[in-house]
Amino acid sequence: MATAQAIASKLIQRDETLRSLRSDYERLWQDIANHVIPRRGEFTEKESSGAERNRHIYDSTAPRALELFASQLMMLLARPESQWFRLEAVDDKGVPRRDISVEGSQWLENAEKQMRAVLTSRPSDLSIQLHTNFLDLAAFGTTVLYVDADDRGAVRTQAIHLSEVTFEEDPYGNPSTVYRRKKMTPAQAIQAFPNEDPDAVVKNFERMAKDNPDRDICFLHVVFPLDGSMPAIEDQLPRDARERARMADAPFASVWINSDDHRVVKAGHYQEMPYIISRWYRTGGYGNEGVRQYGRSPAMTVLPDIRMVNRMDQTILRGAEKLVDPPLMLPDGGLVSPVRLFPGGLTFSDGAVTPQPMIPPGASRIDVGDALLQQKQQAIRDGFFISLMMTPDSPVKTATQVLQEVDERNRALAPMLIRQQTELMEPLVQRVYGLLSRGNAFPAPPAELDGRPVRVSFVSALSSSAKQEEALGTTRIIEALLPWAQVDPGVLDGFDPDEVAKTVHAGSGAPAAVLRPERVVKRVREQRAQQQRQAEQLDQLTNAIEAGAKVAAATGERSR
Fold it and tell me: Rounded to an integer, what distance in angstroms lies between the CA atom of residue 458 and that of residue 208?
């Protein structure tokens, strides 16, 4: 059986192999970073933290479009102050359950509120990390978000730079094994691994902290599925029987390796994948082993235009400088003092020599270059979908026209948003839900939800429109049948009033708190039925008394 150190060496070698396979991608990412988002360019060019990084940018259209794209995508998917996700109870096949009581719905709603409070709190910092994530998504097409809980149970998120991470996919195209390089100082390493073997780990880091406290220690964090695909590692890396038993019920194993001495520092497990990887879109296809898993980005699509506008901007600036401060032409051999071009400068000549501008007025057509530049700038904005995400300035329109435009934009954005909901937002919410559940942050669920699966649904313009359409369609058919119900009330017998009410409630976006619990509804209906029975009995008794009085009156008249 291979030793832990030998297995660590194999994992380090695998990470290096994956990096060598994506070398072309790294050059592309660096080129994009230089032109679009210089502060995230750490792939093939290493800069000091305070170095000036905008030397490749002459036109700011692409960086501004990138930032606007990331902001709009954030507002579409996870607006901080809104209810951007919901929890739904589903059966074992993933179908939403319609038999959930009001108590169950209220428990799920309270869990949603608690999760949103955690995600918007300072330790989580989700809004800032998601915005950075979306910047990377628009630029590089692949992003990595790390979600975990610290020693105190606080949920923390971090947008990981793509240069730190390589990953592999399962047969279905889902990220399965993640390799992350991370540098720590000795003091940070002691804090990160406080419970490990002091002779092998902590004391070594303490010695480093005394000798050189500012040195960087390189670590490799590997997270892989416990599905039998890496049996040697699964059998060897857990430190003792207790950890092995814990890992047996966990779908993912975790290994921290000191890359300097190839020593396993820590082995553990995860119930969910902590590294959430999303792609803008993928090309797929055969070949390109080791890089098929990486995504393509809007910045890659418009990179030729980005390069072009930077060149055009330089050309137009040179043309403008020639018009503002034109070069002069002097005859050879003429008597002239040094040409003084500063304001108020005097240049002396013998009278026969007159400096002439080399570019006659009107010969330099800056307007042509400016028109072409604006076309390319608009192409860049369109490449980042700015026209779809923002309402353009236009003349006054009717409400119907506005709704139609909004619907068209929603349909155009749907494929992009759905992919991010599937690859990024759903694993994020499921991970946070799992962390809080295992941390006993939620109250005890009702029996109908205890141990049952819960699915994440998203409240966006797309999903809201679909549910609103269901509610609107239900309302329309009832309204259409009401006139016929006056002729024949039986036309409404095929509709379940409770299901109609649930459908309209789901489409309205109203909270579950407005609904009565089923036991209360049952009691109210029983009381109503009892009141109706009492009223009927009273009517029957009244009618009987009236009938008896009439009979008595008639009998008395006959007796007389």
Answer: 48
